[in-house]
Write a structure and sequence with these properties.
Strand content of chain A: 15-25%
CATH architecture of the largest domain in chain A: 3-Layer(aba) Sandwich
Number of strands of chain A: 12
Number of domains of chain A: 3
Helix content of chain A: 40-55%
Strand order of the largest sheet of chain A: 2-1-3-4-5-11
Structural class of chain A: alpha/beta
Number of helices of chain A: 14
CATH class of the largest domain in chain A: Alpha Beta
Largest sheet of chain A: 6 strands, parallel
Largest interface: A-B, 62 and 62 residues
Radius of gyration of chain A: 26 Å
Oligomer: homodimer
CATH topology of the largest domain in chain A: Rossmann fold
DNA sequence: CACCCCGATTGAAACGTGTCAATAACTTTC
DNA sequence: GAAAGTTATTGACACGTTTCAATCGGGGTG
């Protein structure tokens, strides 16, 4: 005997419920969607039938009919990155309140996977999407809106307003906050450790950092050195320590500003392995304020992004775009905040 | 002028493609689903029409017709937990190879949300699901299979084989590995810091830990003390340090075994804040081997779970269940591995 | 009592796809 | 060149839902 019992009872549809309650399918549909239009007595009868037959609505039917499904996609760059998972929580909570289902899709930082996911959303006739694009090329998304699925870009402030909505954090301000903090501590030689400059966010952080030095009357070209890495993960950060220290103790920077906490944590580990102490021998600043920034020792000074709020705002924006008849694209900008912990200290030559 | 251009061109269907290519809709369907049945020439003609009209299939139509959708759900306990996100990667990669779309749903450790998500899967007529259940009560899942959606339980080895498939890691062996390690280092007083014992996994780890002491000829009741917490997160771990140290230096345990890395990292922080050094004053062992276990200082000794492999195996199992005509539920068990880092050391009274 | 009105319900049509039996076109064989 | 066989294509229908114009029934009004 097989252990599957699925075919025992065929899944029931709206018509069977209707027959069972002695009404027409249309009435059942009304009970489900606009209960106020149906008389108390019949409503109760239908609800009883629904319960008795254990009817569960078939969303394929609905969305076939309406042309749209009631779910929104959330395209994240990387499911394993804590930054994105916090954002996901925000999106989910807000969506739940609007009665929308969230399907989380992972682009794994790969353009080709993003494209596949966008296509999937189009095939499912998703109502909308919250997207963190893998790079500056938004043509996939433009195509998506032509297919009738609206979207909101997340963490990408440079989206033109005639293309789509966006919610992001002021990266220039973030870089500047970090820079001012380091300048205030007396640092004069800083390395900016970053991912590819093709990513707009890190470019802006870099500019902000330089602006802080300029503001203090220092020459940013002399003060800020850049080390560019292909990926923003801890292993890369650890390996990059060699490059940071290259040139011997003479030219060693006094502080490292990392484009991301993962990178910063890797750097801290790499420094420790080489016998350098943080912050005595070198200060380290991260970006994002992931949970673990507070767990390492010393705690990581970092630029905090309002991750959860970011997610909520994006979803709220999307929701209003879905409901407004005439929508004008909007741009929402959050301001990040520096969180000072133990990984930065006054520079003592 | 509105900035939305969506209604510019109605989304095209299979019939319009057919007309454009001068064939019947059925032929277009064949081109999409069984291209070998259609003659080369017509196939090319249809493909040209598809490209020209930028046709994208409507999955609502397909799944309405077939009764099942081509996507599988992945129900995780907590999107923010690195353990689950690694598993998610495994599931996604395997699913991509089988041509299945993965929708990731978050139960947020809440029974009520799990229920909502299960219902959502039923409404979408999902082909299957990989589920990490919130607790021992699997009635939601039994209901789900009655609705025709098969599932594989993840990380829950006690699922009866007549109920469903499961893929899990041997928690008893994991607890035992940690225990043997601590015994070997000479520890005689260990605290097991854990989440609710209602969770089967942590019960088994506890048993394994005790078994290791028993094996060494020691009395587990005397050697192992249990501190139970409501949740398994870093903040809880940090706060629990008070309980661990309660009773003064005399009765202080020599080591702490945590049911989870997050907890262990919190404990390490809490200990550091109280001026206790790891591993000199106390050894700490975690469970999971998340990325960050290797980034803190000292590195966290922990029981590694094959997270990615776990996800892949679960998805593979689900896929075979979906394709086999006669399926017999299966149970797959992985063995965890102890990773020794700097957080544990020989006990020196 | 005829009329109208109004709320509640119905019936039919449509959404886009997949299936399958039936047909058409074409090839081979004698 | 006709019959038999093979391959390619068609046409119609079903899936479950929603919508909307049409209908029904009952109560109030003139």
């Amino acid at each position: 005997m097989s252990s599957r019992s699925r075919s025992a009872r065929r899944v029931v549809g709206i018509t069977e419920v209707a027959r069972h309650a002695g009404v027409s399918p249309g009435t059942v549909s009304n009970v489900l969607n606009r209960p106020e239009r149906v008389a108390e007595a019949t409503r109760l009868r239908v609800e009883a039938a629904i319960a008795e037959l254990d009817y569960v609505r078939n969303s394929s039917g609905s969305s076939l009919r309406s042309g749209r499904s009631a779910s929104v996609g959330l395209l994240v760059l990387d499911v394993t990155n804590p930054f994105f998972t916090e954002v996901a929580r925000g999106v989910e909570d807000e969506a739940a309140e609007s009665g929308l289902a969230v399907v989380l899709l992972n682009s794994a930082e790969a353009r080709e996977r993003q494209q596949r996911n966008v296509r999937l959303l189009a095939e499912q006739r998703a109502a909308g999407a919250v997207v963190m694009p893998v790079d500056d090329d938004l043509s996939d998304l433009v195509w998506l809106s032509r297919q009738g699925t609206s979207w909101v870009a997340l963490d990408r402030g440079d989206v033109a307003e005639d293309v789509g909505c966006s919610v992001s954090v002021d990266n220039h301000a973030g870089g500047m906050a970090a820079g001012r903090h380091l300048v205030g501590l007396g640092h004069e030689q800083v390395t900016f450790l970053t991912g590819p400059f093709a990513i707009e966010q890190v470019r802006r952080r870099h500019e902000g950092l330089r602006a802080a030095f300029e503001e203090a009357g220092m020459d940013p070209d002399a003060a800020v050195r850049v080390v560019e890495l292909p990926l923003l993960n801890p292993a890369q950060g650890e390996r990059a320590v060699d490059k940071i220290l290259a040139g011997g103790p003479r030219q060693r920077p006094q502080a490292v500003f990392c484009a991301n906490d993962q990178l910063a944590l890797g750097v801290m580990k790499g420094l420790g392995r080489r016998g350098l102490r943080v912050p005595d021998d070198m200060s380290v600043v991260g970006y994002d304020n992931v949970d673990l920034a507070d767990l390492v020792h010393p705690g990581l000074t970092t630029v905090a992004q309002p991750k959860y709020a970011l997610g909520r705002a994006a979803m709220r924006l999307l929701d209003s775009e879905l409901n407004e008849a005439e929508h004008v694209h909007e741009r929402v900008l959050f301001t990040p905040e520096l969180v000072v912990r133990g990984s930065t200290a006054v520079y003592r030559p």
